[in-house]
Amino acid sequence: MTKPENETALLTIPEAAKELRCSYNTVARLIARGALPSTDIAPPGSKRSRTRVPRDGLHAYIAARTTPAKPARRRTT
């Protein structure tokens, strides 16, 4: 399976937040506590962080927290 050209391997924090439909701060907290993998692509010695979230890591985070649907209860009449 090939990925579309516009699908990047690394997401910015705002892009990850958009996919999760949550805030920037929520994604930053998930990264800070180690629940969501991230990488800093800033060059060594840089004063500013350039944090990115691997798309595969984001999908793994979602999959780990997804629960299967419960079967519907049958009504008895």
UniProtKB/TrEMBL annotation:
Region (Disordered): 34-56
Sequence ranges assigned to domain Helix-turn-helix in this UniProt record: 10-65
Top-level taxon: Bacteria
GO MF annotations, alphabetized: DNA binding
Transmembrane segments: none
Name this polypeptide is given: Helix-turn-helix domain-containing protein
One Pfam family matching this protein: HTH_17
Organism: Sphaerimonospora thailandensis
